Amino acid sequence: MEYVAATADMANAIHDILHATIKTIYPKYYPQEVVDFFCQHHSMEHILEGIASGNMGALMNGNAIIGTGGYDGNHITGVYVLPAYQRQGCGSKIMDCLEAAIFKKFDTILLDASLAAVFLYEHRGYKTVGHGIYDLENDVKLVYEIMEKKLNAQK
After folding, report:
1. Tens digits of per-residue pLDDT, 46-91?
2. Helix (H) or strand (E) holding 131
3. ∠123-99-45 over CA atoms, to 5°?
């Protein structure tokens, strides 16, 4: 597996990965309104903006894109792996690459963790520093962990 910079011609595949992962995994943790919110958030326009920033990557298995990740400054904005490839180290590979890029410029990484991913991040040395709540329609609240990892925590 190789993690490469995402390019515009990968946008459709990345869109499919995001939506397949959200629709498969998130319903186990969140109500439908949250699933819908994330699918709307990860629109083609949003994906193309991430690619244009130069901070979005794609995890390749041969010629197939099986995962994606991105960051903005010192904030990891997302890590998604197709459900069929989860629990095989793919998310960790993406995180290794994102962390290496961020730690070149910053000594702290922040991320907003979905309930599905909190344990993965804790295992990687992230600590919860807050909780976020985002109001959605039908009085549904999206709840997530705000987590950070400091460079010196790796040593």
Report:
1. 999 999 999 999 999 999 999 999 999 999 999 999 999 999 999 9
2. strand 127-135
3. 110
Nearest to 66 by CA among 118, 152, 6, 148: 6
Q: For strand 75-81 and strand 56-61, is the pairing parallel, antiparallel, or unpaired?
A: unpaired
> How far, in Å, CA of 65 to CA of 146, rounded?
28
144: left (phi over 0), alpha (psi -120 to 50) or beta: beta
Cα–Cα separations (whole angstroms), residue 116 to 86, 102, 104, 106? 12, 23, 28, 26
Q: What is the pLDDT of residues 4-37, one digit of tens each?
A: 999 999 999 999 999 999 999 999 999 999 999 9
pLDDT band, very low/low/confident/very high, at 120 (cuts 50, 70, 90): confident
Q: At what angle do helices 44-53 and 11-25 cross, to 10 degrees?
A: 120
Q: Is the dihedral of CA 97, 102, 108, 110 positive or negative?
A: negative
